[in-house]
Design goal:
Blueprint lengths: L1 E2 L5 E13 L4 H9 L5 H8 L5 E17 L3 E18 H8 L8 E4 L3 E18 L3 E27 L6 E11 L12 E14 L2 E15 L4 E2 L1
Antiparallel strand pairs: 1-2, 2-3, 3-4, 4-6, 5-7, 6-7, 7-8, 7-9, 8-11, 9-10
Length: 228
Amino acid sequence: MAQSNEKKHVIEWDANLLFESNSLDKSFLNTMLYGGYISNEMKTAWINPGGENNIIHSEMSNGLSYTYYLKKQSIGFSFTDRNLLNASFTDDVLRIGFEGNYNYQDETLFFNNTNIRADRFQQYTLSYATSSKKVKISTSFSYLSGNHHLSYIIEKGSLYTAPFGTSLDIAYDMSAFVTDTTSLSPFKHNGNGLALGLSTEFQFQKHTIHLSFSDLGFIMWNPNSIIL
């Protein structure tokens, strides 16, 4: 952070790596990032954490922001490069991914309600904030430059492996959406969007109440996208 002597100008660089899951723990993340031997015990622990539905949310972002402070107001601008991954899948998806289908001969593995979504975009945000003795309000307006998006939504899916692997029976009902693949450049322009943010904080008797939402918006992807 760099500030002038009058403390009116603030420049910040922010890097964020977020990984959230209701089943996969820190050992899974460390192994995926740094490598290492994956034992059968580790696979079993990842596959059977106690719930049938596994959820993952991950974000990697880097941003630069500038804020100018007045007496009770502030105006800011920021640029952020964002990469998002959201997934929801059954334990059977982990079984086929970590163990393959050898141990599930003459059995059916189910992939119902499996969803995978990934987004990459740049966010340009203009923000404004004001405050008084009892109320603080901040707003933001963002332009989103979409690079890539993919989504795979499987409502029903299954894999049956016959004894000794003599045959496989795969059935699925899937919807897929992938943006233009003619260029794999990370900064390929494939869509435009907008996002809004609002935050307010005020005093009520002896309590401080805070209400807010951020990044409520959308991206319209170009018509060259692949829809299946």
